[in-house]
Design goal:
alpha/beta; 8 strands; 8 helices; about 220 residues
Length: about 220
């Protein structure tokens, strides 16, 4: 089984993409081959709704190329699920976004969940976006954020994790959520230690997306 992961940020290095695939490989079967590509023409990082629109055409082309290359599924490596519906219109293989995969898994382990973003400025956008992904009203009870705009989460893991702990505690204490969803795919690898620290399930959208894609392919859907 071949799953192509599309990273919608421009110019991500080969080593960085291989690192992400290596982490994700631990959560899929031994017969699953993961590969990642990123934008090479559209010079944006997905930090706004405008970025999503600008990145869309190249994401669609990369998705079509994945199908032509014989991939069995496509994963969109972003919590905005950029161009997901457009890709599904054009492809016959499953297309799974990190946001949708994670918010649909959350009701399996909790009544109400909280989402933690990497930038408070995007809370309003996600409040409107997440209910469009197929979850019932009230399933996402609260959306919070750490303050990491303009800084690399990958280069500052300890600081990011410390902020996630504090924001997670706040959402659990003040909002009563029983599960947390990490609202940025640069948080890859932090869900398990955060869950152990806070004592609630924590869903990693990157892992949720590749596992969902694998399941759909195995079911022949």
């Amino acid at each position: 089984m071949k799953i192509r992961i599309i990273n919608p940020d421009y110019g991500v290095g080969e080593e960085a993409m291989a690192q992400r695939c290596s982490i994700l490989q631990q959560f899929v079967g031994p017969d699953v081959e993961l590969s990642m590509v990123c934008l090479t023409q559209t010079k944006v990082e997905i930090d706004s709704a405008a970025d999503v629109v600008m990145a869309g055409p190249e994401i669609l082309e990369l998705a079509k190329q994945a199908e032509q290359d014989g991939c069995d599924a496509v994963v969109l490596y972003c919590f905005s699920d950029p161009a997901a519906e457009a890709c599904r219109e054009r492809l016959r293989i499953p297309v799974v976004g990190g946001a949708q995969a994670s918010v649909l898994q959350a009701p399996l382990v909790a009544r109400q969940s909280g989402v933690i973003l990497s930038d408070p400025a995007r809370i309003g956008e996600k409040e409107l976006f997440l209910p469009t992904l197929g979850i019932g009203p009230g399933r996402i009870k609260a959306i919070g954020a750490i303050h990491f705009q303009g800084k690399s989460i990958w280069d500052n893991r300890e600081e990011a994790f410390a902020q996630l702990v504090e924001e997670g505690k706040r959402l659990i204490r003040e909002q009563g959520v029983q599960c947390l969803i990490l609202g940025c795919l640069s948080f890859l690898g932090l869900a398990r230690p955060l869950s152990e620290k806070l004592g609630v399930p924590v869903i990693d959208p990157a892992i949720a997306a590749v596992c969902t894609a694998e399941s759909l392919v195995r079911q022949g859907i």
